[in-house]
C-alpha cells in the first residue's frame, strides 16, 4: 500500500502534493538540517589537508542517509498497515450498529402493540391489592382486638417495674404494627396515607408505652449504684432491655444498608439506648456535684466536702467493679467509663471551686487534695483503678494556669497574714523595750526577746506547710517571707531610731535602754541565721514577680545591727562625756581619779557586751576600744595641758603610762599601742617611729609638738619634712584615728586696744 494511496482513498495521488504546504514545520526542519550540515562541513573542512578525505566523508554520509531512509520507510509502512486494520474494524462496527438499530425499532413497535392488551389487567391488579389488604385485616383481627388488653397489661408491668416482661409485650405490639403496615402495602404498592394514619392512631399507645418504659428504665439505671448494693435484678433487666434495643436497631439498619428491605424505619428508630445508658450514668455522677454551693463549703466545710468526695467516689468504684460490672457485658468496661466520668465531673467542679473567693486554709485543702490525695493509692492510684486504665490518660485534674493561680492566691493570703503577725510582733517588741527589768537571758547567757522566735517560727512553719503541697509552693512562700522580713526590718530600724531619740530626750526614762539595745543585736544575729537557713531551703528561683536571690533581708539586718551598735556607742559616749572632759587636764595630772572612773564605766559596759552573741560582741568591744582611743587623742588635740618643763613632761608621761596600764587591764593589750603613741609623742617624738605611721597631718603634728612644750620652731620644719619623706607600712586591718579628729583652731587672746592693732 503506497503513501499516495493512503492520502487519497480513491487512488488519486494529485491531492497528496499540497500536504507539504499544510505542514510548514517540515520546511523549517529541512532548513535547520541544511544549516546544521553547512556548519558541520565548515568545521570539518577548515584546513586544506582535510579535503583529501572528502570521498570518505561522502561515502559515509550516503550510507547513513540510506539507512535512515530505509528505517523511515519501514516505520511508515507499519503505521499505514495499522491504520488500514482500524478502518476495516470501523466499517464492520457501523454495519453491526445498523442491525441493532433495526432490531430495537422492531421491539418498540411490538411493545406499543402489546401495551393495549395490558390495560385490561389494571382492574384485576386493583382487585388483587384489595383482596390482599382485606386478607391482612381479617388475619390481624384477633391481634387488633387484643391490642387494648396488651397495652393495659404493659402499663401495669411498667408501673410495677417488671421491665423485662413489659418490654416483651412492647416488642410484640411494635411487631404487630409493623406487620399490619407491611401487609397493607403488599406487592410494593404505595400505602394510602389515610390507611397509614389510621394504623398509627390505633397503635398510638405504643409510643406512650415506649416513653413510660424509658423513664422507668433510666430511673433504674440512674439509681444503679444503690440497687447494686441491695437487689441488682432490676438493673440487670434494664441492661438486657438496652441490649435488645441495640440489637433491633443494628438489625434494622443492616437490612436497609444491604438493600434487602425497602420498608421505612419504624417511628422512633434507631433508639440508641446504649448511648443513652452511658449518658444517664454520666448524669448520675454529675448529680453528686450539683448540690454543692459556696455557702455550704465555707471554712472547714470545704475540706470535709473533699474528704466526703474521696470516700463516696472510692465506695462507688468498689460497687462498680465488684457489683455493676457483673451485671453488664464485658465490652461496656463500666469501671473505666465511671472513672473517666468522675474525673471529668471533678474537673468541672474544681474549676468552679477554684473561682470562689477562698481563704488560705481552703486553698490548702484544694491543693493538697488535687496534688496528693487524688493521685494517691487511696484514689486514682488504687490497684483496682490502675489495672483498668492508666491515670495519665485522664490528664490533669486542674489546668496548670488554675494551679498557678491557686498557688499565687495562697501565697498572697499568707503574705497578708505574715505582715499582720510581724506588725504585732513589732508592737510587742516595742512594749518590751519599755519594761523596768532586764531582758530575758537564754541558756548561753545572751540577752534576747521573743521577737526572733516569733518571726523565725512563723516563716518556718509557713514553709513547712507549703512543702506539704509542693517544693515550688515552698520556694514561693519562703521568697515571700524573706521580702516581708526585709520590709519588717526596715520598720524595725526606724523603731530603733525613734527609741534612740526618745532616750536622748530623757536619759532616765528607761534604765534598761542599753540592755535592750544589746538584746536587739542578739535578736538580729538569730534572725540572720534563720534567714540564711530559709534561703538554703529553696531549690530554685520561684516563679513570680520577685527576683532571686533576695539579698535585701541580710542587708536590712546588717543595717539594723549597725544602727544598734551606733546607739550603744552613743550611750557609752554619753556616760563617758563628763570624764572625757577632764582627761589630759590639770586635774587629771594632779589627782588621777579620772581614768579609774572611766575604766569602771568601760568594765561595766564590756561586761554587758558579754551578753551579746558573737561576732557582734567582738565588734562592740572593738568599737568601744576605738572610741576610747579617739576620745583620748581628741583630748590631747584640744591642748588642755601644755608641758612647761622636763619635770612636768616626765610627770605627764608617767600618768599616761598608768592610764595605759589601766586600759590594758580593761581591754587586754588592745589599747596599749595607741596610748604608747601618746607617751612617745609627749616624751620623745624624734625617737618614736610610730608618729610617722599614725600621724599624717601637719596640724596634728603641730598640736603634739605644742603639748610637749620644748620643741623650738626651727625643729618643727625638720619634723614635718621627715613625715613627708617617710613611706610608712601600715599594719593589717588598720583604721585611721587622726583622720576622724579635727584640730581645734588656736584661741586668740582678747584685747581692747587703745591704738590700732597691727
TrEMBL record:
An example Gene Ontology molecular-function term: SNARE binding
GO terms classed as biological process: exocyst localization; exocytosis
GO CC annotations on file: exocyst
Gene3D superfamilies from the UniProt entry: 1.10.357.50, Exocyst complex component Sec6, C-terminal domain
Pfam families tied to this protein: Sec6
Entries under PANTHER family matching the protein: EXOCYST COMPLEX COMPONENT 3-LIKE PROTEIN (PTHR21292:SF12), EXOCYST COMPLEX COMPONENT SEC6-RELATED (PTHR21292)
Family classification: Belongs to the SEC6 family.
Protein name (record): Exocyst complex component 3-like 1
Amino acid at each position: 500500500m503506497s503513501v499516495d494511496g493512503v492520502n487519497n482513498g480513491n487512488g488519486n495521488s494529485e491531492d497528496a502534493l499540497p500536504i507539504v504546504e499544510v505542514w510548514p514545520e517540515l520546511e523549517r526542519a529541512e532548513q535547520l538540517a541544511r544549516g546544521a550540515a553547512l556548519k558541520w562541513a565548515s568545521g570539518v573542512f577548515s584546513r586544506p589537508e582535510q579535503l583529501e578525505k572528502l570521498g570518505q566523508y561522502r561515502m559515509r554520509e550516503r550510507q547513513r542517509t540510506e539507512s535512515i531512509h530505509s528505517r523511515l520507510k519501514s516505520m511508515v509502512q507499519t503505521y499505514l498497515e495499522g491504520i488500514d486494520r482500524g478502518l476495516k474494524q470501523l466499517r464492520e462496527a457501523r454495519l453491526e450498529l445498523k442491525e441493532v438499530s433495526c432490531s430495537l425499532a422492531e421491539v418498540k413497535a411490538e411493545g406499543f402493540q402489546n401495551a393495549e392488551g395490558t390495560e385490561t389487567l389494571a382492574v384485576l391488579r386493583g382487585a388483587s391489592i384489595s383482596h390482599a389488604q382485606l386478607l391482612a385485616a381479617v388475619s390481624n383481627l384477633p391481634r387488633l382486638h387484643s391490642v387494648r388488653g396488651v397495652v393495659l397489661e404493659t402499663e401495669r408491668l411498667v408501673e410495677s417495674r417488671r421491665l423485662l416482661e413489659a418490654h416483651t409485650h412492647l416488642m410484640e405490639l411494635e411487631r404487630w404494627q409493623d406487620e399490619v403496615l407491611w401487609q397493607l402495602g403488599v406487592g410494593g404498592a404505595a400505602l394510602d396515607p389515610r390507611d397509614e394514619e389510621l394504623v398509627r392512631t390505633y397503635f398510638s399507645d405504643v409510643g406512650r408505652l415506649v416513653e413510660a418504659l424509658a423513664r422507668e428504665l433510666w430511673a433504674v439505671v440512674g439509681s444503679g449504684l444503690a440497687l447494686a448494693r441491695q437487689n441488682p435484678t432490676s438493673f440487670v433487666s434494664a441492661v438486657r432491655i438496652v441490649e435488645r434495643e441495640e440489637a433491633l436497631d443494628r438489625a434494622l439498619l443492616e437490612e436497609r444498608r444491604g438493600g434487602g428491605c425497602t420498608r421505612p424505619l419504624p417511628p422512633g428508630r434507631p433508639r440508641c439506648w446504649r448511648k443513652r445508658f452511658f449518658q444517664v450514668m454520666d448524669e448520675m455522677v454529675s448529680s453528686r456535684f450539683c448540690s454543692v454551693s459556696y455557702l455550704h463549703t465555707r471554712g472547714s466545710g470545704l475540706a470535709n466536702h473533699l474528704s466526703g468526695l474521696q470516700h463516696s467516689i472510692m465506695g462507688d468504684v468498689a460497687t462498680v467493679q465488684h457489683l455493676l460490672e457483673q451485671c453488664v457485658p464485658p465490652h461496656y468496661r463500666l469501671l473505666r467509663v465511671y472513672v473517666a466520668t468522675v474525673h471529668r465531673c471533678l474537673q468541672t467542679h474544681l474549676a468552679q471551686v477554684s473561682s470562689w473567693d477562698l481563704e488560705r486554709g481552703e486553698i490548702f485543702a484544694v491543693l493538697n487534695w488535687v496534688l496528693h490525695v487524688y493521685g494517691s493509692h487511696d484514689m486514682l492510684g488504687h490497684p483496682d483503678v490502675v489495672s483498668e486504665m492508666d491515670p495519665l490518660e485522664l490528664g490533669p485534674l486542674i489546668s496548670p494556669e488554675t494551679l498557678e493561680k491557686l498557688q499565687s492566691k495562697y501565697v498572697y493570703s499568707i503574705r497578708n497574714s505574715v505582715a499582720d503577725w510581724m506588725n504585732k510582733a513589732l508592737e510587742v517588741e516595742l512594749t518590751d523595750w519599755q519594761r523596768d527589768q532586764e531582758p530575758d537571758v537564754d541558756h548561753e547567757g545572751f540577752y534576747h526577746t521573743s521577737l526572733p522566735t516569733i518571726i523565725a517560727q512563723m516563716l518556718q512553719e509557713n514553709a513547712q506547710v507549703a512543702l506539704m503541697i509542693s517544693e515550688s509552693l515552698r520556694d514561693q512562700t519562703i521568697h515571700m517571707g524573706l521580702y516581708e522580713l526585709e520590709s519588717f526590718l526596715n520598720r524595725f530600724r526606724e523603731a530603733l531610731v525613734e527609741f534612740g531619740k526618745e532616750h536622748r530626750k530623757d536619759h532616765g526614762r528607761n534604765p534598761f535602754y542599753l540592755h535592750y539595745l544589746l538584746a536587739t543585736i542578739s535578736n538580729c544575729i538569730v534572725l540572720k541565721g534563720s534567714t540564711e537557713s530559709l534561703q538554703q531551703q529553696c531549690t530554685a528561683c520561684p516563679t513570680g514577680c520577685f527576683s532571686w536571690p533576695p539579698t535585701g533581708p541580710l542587708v536590712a539586718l546588717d543595717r539594723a545591727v549597725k544602727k544598734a551598735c551606733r546607739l550603744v556607742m552613743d550611750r557609752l559616749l554619753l556616760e563617758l562625756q563628763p570624764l572625757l572632759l577632764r582627761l589630759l587636764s590639770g586635774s587629771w595630772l594632779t589627782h588621777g581619779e579620772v581614768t579609774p572612773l572611766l575604766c569602771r564605766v568601760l568594765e561595766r559596759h564590756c561586761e554587758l557586751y558579754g551578753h551579746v552573741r558573737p561576732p557582734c560582741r567582738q565588734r562592740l568591744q572593738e568599737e568601744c576600744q576605738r572610741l576610747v582611743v579617739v576620745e583620748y587623742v581628741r583630748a590631747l588635740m584640744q591642748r588642755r595641758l601644755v608641758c612647761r618643763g622636763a619635770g612636768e613632761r616626765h610627770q605627764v608621761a608617767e600618768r599616761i603610762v598608768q592610764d595605759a596600764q589601766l586600759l590594758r587591764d580593761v581591754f587586754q593589750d588592745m589599747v596599749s599601742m595607741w596610748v604608747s603613741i601618746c607617751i612617745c609623742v609627749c616624751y620623745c617624738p624624734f625617737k618614736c617611729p610610730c608618729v610617722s605611721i599614725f600621724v599624717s597631718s601637719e596640724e596634728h603634728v603641730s598640736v603634739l609638738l605644742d603639748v610637749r612644750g620644748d620643741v623650738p620652731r626651727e625643729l618643727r620644719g625638720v619634723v614635718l619634712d621627715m613625715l613627708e619623706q617617710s613611706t610608712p607600712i601600715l599594719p593589717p586591718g588598720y583604721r585611721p584615728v587622726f583622720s576622724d579628729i579635727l584640730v581645734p583652731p588656736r584661741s586668740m587672746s582678747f584685747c581692747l586696744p587703745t591704738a590700732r592693732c597691727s
